[in-house]
Amino acid sequence: MGVGVAPAAPRGTIRVLSLHELTKETDVEHTLPALPYAMDALAPHISKETFEFHYGKHHQAYVTNLNNLIKGTEFENLGLEDIVRKSSAGIFNNAAQVWNHTFFWHSMKPNGGGEPTGALAAAINAKWGTFAAFKEAFTKSAVGNFGSGWTWLVKKADGTVDIVNTSNAGTTLTSGDKALLTIDVWEHAYYIDFRNARPKFVETFLNSLVNWDFAAQNFA
Ligand code: MN
Predict the structure, then answer these.
(1) Is 181 among the domain residues?
(2) How far apart are the CA of 63 and the centre of ligand 1, in A?
(3) Is the pLDDT of residue 73 over 50?
């Protein structure tokens, strides 16, 4: 079995994976994890064409590069998360991008959006006052994340929530923060569907795509 491989969900259904399932690793060859929905499931917001490139080409390339780079190294028999935590340079970049993208696909779902409930909603309100204020802060962070990177909602060690930006392949796996959800703000994430309009992409993510069930599961 490879990285985060789970049985393919029947079309039209969504199987929410635990973080452990997303990242477990039991042998050497890393593989591209299955998407939690069909490639056209987030259209018209994110097109099938975007998934063909972003998942089928970019995410796949990180997996392929990682397998090539770790051959004959101390990382050859490690699980993906261990590689991310212990490596640097090219191996880190590719391993972290494999993990980040898998986490991003699960941060969205068809007919997503809406608002969180329960303990996560309470934590968000404790931090930002209102859900609208959280959305404003998240949008400002994602739109202002210079160049290529990721914007995350995280749970900190003290149990509070926060918004964190990382650059390039930067990931919360190497910080003390637990990722709840993420948006990829590399241009390849939105250029086909939104051209240069990152603010519209972030707005669409929050209003129509974000998977609060996944975030709540990570928060619990
Ligand atoms: Mn990407």
Answers:
(1) yes
(2) 13
(3) yes
Contact 192, 103 (CB under 8 A): no
Kindly state whether residue 104 falls inside one of the protein's structural domains: no
The verdict on residue 199 lying in a domain is yes
Total number of domains constituting the chain? 1
State mean pLDDT over 94-122. 98
Rounded to the nearest angstrom, the distance between the alpha carbon of 82 and the centre of ligand 1 is: 21
Q: Which of 110, 68, 98 is nearest to 5 (CA)?
A: 98
Spacing, Cα 118 to ligand 1 middle (Å): 30
Residue 70, φ and ψ in degrees, nearest 5: -85, -10
- Rounded to the nearest integer, the mean pLDDT of the chain is 92
pTM across the whole model: 0.89
Nearest CA among 57, 95, 54 for reference residue 73: 95
CA–centroid distance, 186 to ligand 1, in Å, is 6
In angstroms, what is the span from residue 166 Cα to ligand 1's centroid? 13
Asked if the bond preceding 116 is cis, omega within 30° of 0, the reply is no
CA of 59 to the centre of ligand 1 (A): 7
Alpha carbon of 167 to ligand 1 centroid (Å) = 12
The rounded distance, in Å, linking the Cα atoms of 28 and 52 is: 26
Could you tell me the distance, in angstroms and rounded to a whole number, from the CA of residue 58 to the centre of ligand 1? 7
Query: By CB neighbour count within 10 A (0-12 exposed, 13-18 middle, 19+ buried), where does 49 fall?
Result: middle
Which domain does 136 fall in, by range?
A: 118-219
Residue 54 pLDDT > 70: yes
